[in-house]
Predict the structure.
Amino acid sequence: SRFAPARVALTSAIVVATLVGAAVVPLPMTATAPLVLDYRDARRVYVTVPGQLVERVPAGQTVAQGQTVARLASPAVDRELAKLASDRDRQLLFLNNLEARRLQGTDNGARIPAARAALADIDERLAQLQRDAAELQLVAPIDGTVLPPPAQPREPRSDKLARWSGTPLDERNLGSHLDTGTLVCLIGQPNQFEGVLHVGQADVELVQPGQRVRMMLDHLPGRVFSGHVSEIAKLNVDVMPRELIAAGDVPSRTDERGVHHPLDTWYQARVRFDDDPLHEVARVHGRAKISVAPRSLGAQLVRYLKQTFSR
């Protein structure tokens, strides 16, 4: 037929136009990320001076700002306080004697400046130690409810310090030694949550505050929670939650202290729920899909190839 070449040309043009359109027209795109449920806007209470846990407020109790939530004892701090107080008394007596002898004319007072400097040094060290002693009493930074931190697994210890596992709020851990940096508890609201997403370096450039997120928790299959990205961490995550390691989300290495460090670079994105999940607890694991800016099939293919061949 004399129209056959025209039909072929028209069909070819339509196919080419369709392919070109598919390659350049932006299409919906999502980025996936594992998540861990966490308490929203909760303030953390850490140990700043190591000691033995002698008192703690149980999880679930309401506290006011400034109220004691845990108290530690440190015999080493107590001994050093007593020693410095005694040293200060002796140095002050020595200085007073030097000044009295200078006034009486039996001493020229040459040793007084050094004695005053020594007393000032003792006073400074004593003041710092008194601040340390005060920090053995941990107080609530805000009004709220005492919330448990992530539980610690039982690990063997090579020293003779009391071992502890679970959380410092557990009654069985009274009397245990808590090191500097131990997270004792959180203070916040028990029914206010956020999703903490861990985004890989390849996807972090796609994620922006305000983007919509759909989330599912492992123990609630089929139920979808909605929210939006509220914040993206500026620094990469160096220590990963055990929940992500256990789920196989993140390749990691374990150091001599049992802390998991990711092999790749990851970032945190925090997600605000449209409606807080009810009757949940922190640290449960889930998955999230982030609705990122649309990209054409061509752009998505180029991005995929770059990721594939840059590994």
Helices lie at 4-24, 75-104, 112-134, 201-204, 242-246, 297-309.
